[in-house]
Amino acid sequence: MDFKFSDREELLRKTARDYAEKELPPRMEAMEETGEFPVELLPSMGAMGILGVITAPQYGGIGMGQLARIIVLEELGRVCPAIPMALQVHHMCTYAIGTWGNDEQKAKYLPRLAKGETMGVVAVTEPSGGSDVAGLQTTAKLEGDNYILNGRKCFITNSHTGDIWVVIARTGEGGKGLSAFIVEKDYPGAKTGRKENKVGLRGANTGELAFTNCEVPKENLLGQEGMGMSIAIRDIVECGRPGMTAVALGILNAVCEQAVKFANERSLYGKSISKLQAIQWYLAEIYSDLEISRLLAYRVGWMLDEKIDCAAESALAKQYACEAAARSARKAIEIHGSYGIMKEYPVQRLLRDALVTIPAGGTAEISKLVLARQALAVFGQG
Amino acid sequence: MRIIVCLKPVPDPKHWNKLKLDPQTRTLVRTGIPGTINPLDRNALEEALRVREALGGEVIVLSMAPPDAQPVLKEALARGADRAVLLSDRVFAGSDTLATAYVLSEAIRTLGDFDLVLCGDETIDGGTAQVSAQLAEFLGVPNLMHVSSVDARPDAPWLVRSQIEHGCMVVEVKPPMVLSVVKAINEPRYVTLMNILQAEGKELAIWSAQDVNLSEPWVGLAGSPTQMADLLTPERKGRAEMLPGSPANQARALADRLHRLGFC
């Protein structure tokens, strides 16, 4: 077992960190104010290979894999967690098309997404809920050469910044009656709805997609009819949850840095508060959560790259890291005292950002269901 | 066109709070501090890439450092250099600027003909700003320091702008030459993920003292005329002075004070 990153991975981290530290801070205030993703960064992110990190080279990507993706998203998230939130969903779109798309679909959509001409979207959740995928109500009926989509999707990341949407809709009854489609934003009958005003990860655009007799060419069916449930679940497990884990890792890094910085700088009773045991307990807990989350996240990245099934490990990493990010941010605020709830200090934003990661990409409770099933399967025999 | 960039791995400034001085050996304790490309050498490499883009040719990165500097050279390859040579031998240890420049110059001769050698003006650890001039002297070619732009023309002398006190001078100079650059010369490009992958296929040669023709004894600590008398951590003696009055009066008093101190 080798826990050391390769020179390639270390350089990748440094590269992503250089980019993040230079390009993101000047934009963060506007992102917080407006809730808009800085789309002007897409061309440079495309040129860097960040957008196509898991896309195959023949379709304009880099093909570096999921561990590389986690490292890149973590580094971007250390500076501005909203950026990897948006990008991780973009990657989910590229993963879905790259995994289940046919050659024509890949050639048509993946280069545009890798280059940063637009962003990718994955739309599963509906007003009736996101966890009950089998219960979703958007319909798709084949009429001539088109599928006609009707319904509404909500809480969709990149809703107003992405032009290429992977949409799950109902073509039949029950869980096996779901199918996945590639929908372009300007197809007749497709439109964006309201934009959400989120408490955190504000720079990642979230909103509604609406379909009213939306005409989707039948060649835009992803995979086969009836594969929608499998595509949605695997996309979430193999890309969405690792991506959300990376966002949380970025937050945890930032939380740890801010907590240590403030504890070292702030003096009370004639000495730095980092010398106080009460503060050191907090720092120890934050640091532990960061390190545990790192191990869980990188293991999932490695397993995915090795093509090892990791549904439980992915759920564990996501659930642990996102909750760890929230509780650690809360502890960092405690270290800051009253400064912690002032907008000038980033820890309050980090807590808001962390709270948003918990339901995104599968709630903590859904992850725990997966983990309980795993525990029962592994330890319940004999 | 053959361009050689002399590059020094230095302790990453983000970890300088962990740096210590060893009073016995009078050296910097670098253990546990990750290395990085000296910042101005990054500008030198970027300029080399731009000259290559304009005139074609090859960019070779050259460095004298311990073997653990390889990741730093791999970064240089990912930044776009065609190949790298790491001069690494125990006999090089303790070299001062003159010995370093001598070894580098002999390595450059071993590499063959060259048109341009680029360095950063100075390093952030030693900060002597001596190597490029010494290198030019050893190689017998012109040297310009504080270079802020290079107009590399294919069929005419190059126009090289060099910063001088209160201005700059533009010099016509024909290759080969040694230039050392300032930060203002360019903005180094980002390393792309594709370049990281491509760098893995590029040559990183490790040369020992045997691989270069070192006919003179100017190598390592013994061959270095510079002898460190002492090494001290400077005492911080900063003090604050509050200027009273309205903002306008404060600004006036501040400008006056700065002027008297010789800053403006």
Integer average pLDDT of chain B: 92
How many angstroms does the end-to-end distance of chain A come to? Answer: 30 Å
How many strands in all of chain B? 13
Radius of gyration of chain A, CA atoms, in whole angstroms: 21 Å
The beta-strand count of chain A equals 10
The CATH class of chain B, by name, is Alpha Beta
Strand percentage of chain A, roughly?
Answer: 15-25%
Order of helices and strands of chain B: EEEEEHEHEHEHEEEEHEH
Q: How confident overall, as mean pLDDT of chain A?
A: 95
Shape of chain A: globular
CATH architecture identity of the largest domain in chain A: Up-down Bundle
CATH superfamily label of the largest domain in chain A:
Butyryl-CoA Dehydrogenase, subunit A, domain 3
In CATH, the topology of chain B is named Rossmann fold
The amount of beta strand of chain B, in percent, is 25-35%
Tally of distinct domains of chain A: 3
